[in-house]
């Protein structure tokens, strides 16, 4: 599983890194640090990551299986 944060949609709500801090990280301004690049999801983090995907109010996070 990989996730990608669309940098044009992320407005810094922070739910992603609050829910799945082992996957997402904030930058200095509260946006997701990794934007527009696929982020590998570590084993065991899939459920929290899925919750983060659905929790983003901007719909900025896309999950792909691979
Ligand atoms: Fe950005 Fe959504 Fe996370 S707006 S900081 S990707 S919860």
TrEMBL record:
Pfam families named in the record: Fer4_15
Keywords: 3Fe-4S, Electron transport, Iron, Iron-sulfur, Metal-binding, Transport
Cofactor: [3Fe-4S] cluster
Name of the protein in its database record: Ferredoxin
Species whose genome carries this gene: Pseudonocardia sulfidoxydans NBRC 16205
4Fe-4S ferredoxin-type domain segment(s): 1-29
Entry-linked InterPro entries: 4Fe4S_Fe-S-bd, Fe-S_cluster_ET
GO molecular function: 3 iron, 4 sulfur cluster binding; metal ion binding
SUPFAM superfamilies assigned: 4Fe-4S ferredoxins
């Amino acid at each position: 599983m990989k996730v990608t944060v669309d940098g044009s949609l992320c407005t810094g709500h922070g739910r992603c890194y609050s829910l799945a801090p082992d996957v997402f990280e904030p930058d200095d301004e509260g946006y997701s640090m990794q934007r527009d690049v696929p982020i590998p999801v570590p084993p065991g983090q899939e459920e929290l990551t899925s919750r983060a995907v659905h929790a983003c109010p901007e719909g900025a996070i896309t999950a792909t299986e691979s």
